[in-house]
Amino acid sequence: MSYKSRSIKIVTISTLLLLIFTLEPKGQFFTLPPLPPDYKFGNILINRTSEKNNVKPATFSHWIHRQKHTCRVCHFELEFNFQVNTTEITEAANKAGMYCGASGCHDGKTVFGHDRPHCEKCHNGNITYGKEKFSELSGLPKAKFGNGIDWVKAMDKDMIKPAHYLMIMPLPLEGFTFNKILLLEAEMFGIPPAIFPHNPHIQWLDCNNCHPDVFTVKKKETQHFSMEKILQKKFCGVCHLNVAFPMDHCNRCHPLMSDYWGKY
Ligand code: HEC
Ligand code: HEC
Ligand code: HEC
Ligand code: HEC
Ligand code: HEC
């Protein structure tokens, strides 16, 4: 190949790459689910049995609860699933100290319990119940999407100190470097890799929340790992659609889609 044709080729390829990287990626490749307002992001109505039993659906807000407890407490110790209306929560179980009624939670001592007149604080069918308290979070570091809060920074700066366990203190792990950032190369030409930092995740979660059911314990060994699947609530999409920052924030996972790379 002559010098000239090679340099033309390089110019063409770099123009192509430049084009890909400068495109505003949002919505170019995928249809993302619509985002609720910040104060509603992560709020759910639990209604597996409520209305069938003549009470209003139970309201639950992630931003209220995650200030005090990490995901691990509820989704590992208390065994709530990562999918609304799939956990077999019953009022009898709550009263017996499981689920919402666990000791240190809605036990009637720490916070309001499962007795009158408190029923309607949960069973009110209002998904934005407690909305007025959202303004109390305005001092926390900002993020672009979801609750508009950078929960990782908020925890790093000790602005929130959520408890990481109720009963079972997780064992310190040796021989595993959490500060290593995994580079997950995308299976598509020209797409900058996604990153997976263990460190911020294990401050919120338990290894068991992801391993071995969601991810293989070996980089790039997880099968059928693609954005299409993620948007179907698989893999990263187990959390990054409706509780952790949503998929709209391309560059927080694909840092080279913008200047976010510098942060790491
Ligand atoms: C105080 C307890 C509590 C904490 C803390 C908590 N969750 Fe949840 N979460 C729940 C409950 C309860 C449900 C509903 C489960 C059900 O209905 O089966 C839920 C549901 C979910 C869902 C499914 C939402 C949907 O729309 O289907 C996801 C995803 C989730 N949680 C992720 C997280 C993440 C990530 C964190 C940490 C940032 C977290 N949760 C912290 C209690 C909690
Ligand atoms: C801290 C929140 C909370 C409080 C307080 C609470 N509940 Fe519940 N309750 C729930 C949740 C969550 C469920 C599971 C709802 C579902 O899956 O539809 C539930 C389920 C129920 C059910 C469905 C059937 C069953 O037996 O599980 C009934 C009936 C019920 N609660 C009645 C009550 C009454 C009456 C009170 C007050 C004396 C009360 N609850 C207080 C959270 C609460
Ligand atoms: C939020 C989800 C999540 C949590 C929590 C999590 N991991 Fe991972 N882990 C991953 C992903 C994603 C990969 C890469 C999988 C792939 O590329 O197929 C991975 C890979 C690994 C690997 C292989 C690394 C390599 O270089 O091949 C090890 C070891 C590992 N995790 C250990 C742990 C331990 C120990 C914990 C708990 C302290 C933990 N993980 C918590 C998501 C998680
Ligand atoms: C089990 C839940 C869960 C899964 C699965 C998960 N994450 Fe997260 N991730 C979180 C939570 C919680 C945070 C804290 C930030 C927040 O809540 O917005 C977070 C934060 C992050 C951050 C921000 C780190 C920082 O320093 O600001 C990145 C990047 C990230 N996740 C990428 C991924 C990728 C890529 C995957 C899939 C390989 C993934 N996550 C899977 C829950 C999860
Ligand atoms: C929560 C983290 C996360 C966010 C946010 C995210 N991605 Fe991804 N993306 C990934 C992971 C993980 C892969 C797969 C890497 C692999 O194959 O191992 C991926 C792969 C891709 C691919 C390659 C094709 C495919 O389907 O695997 C494209 C294109 C892509 N992402 C574009 C985007 C765009 C555009 C956005 C913003 C709208 C975005 N991503 C937001 C984590 C994320």
Compact description:
With 264 residues, the chain is mainly alpha-helical. 25% of the residues lie in helices and 6% in strands. It has 10 helices and 4 strands; from the N terminus they run αββαααααββαααα.
Task: Compile the SSE list and pairings.
Layout lengths: L2 H20 L20 E4 L11 E4 H4 L5 H7 L13 H5 L23 H4 L28 H6 L24 E4 L9 E4 H7 L2 H4 L16 H4 L19 H4 L11
The site of one heme C has 23 residues, from helix 4 and helix 5.
Ligand types: heme C
Numbering strands along the chain, what is their spatial order in the largest sheet?
1-2
User: In total, how many domains does the architecture comprise?
Assistant: 2
Strand residues, percent: 5-15%
Uncertain residue ranges: 22-27, 259-264
Topology-level CATH name of the largest domain: Cytochrome C3
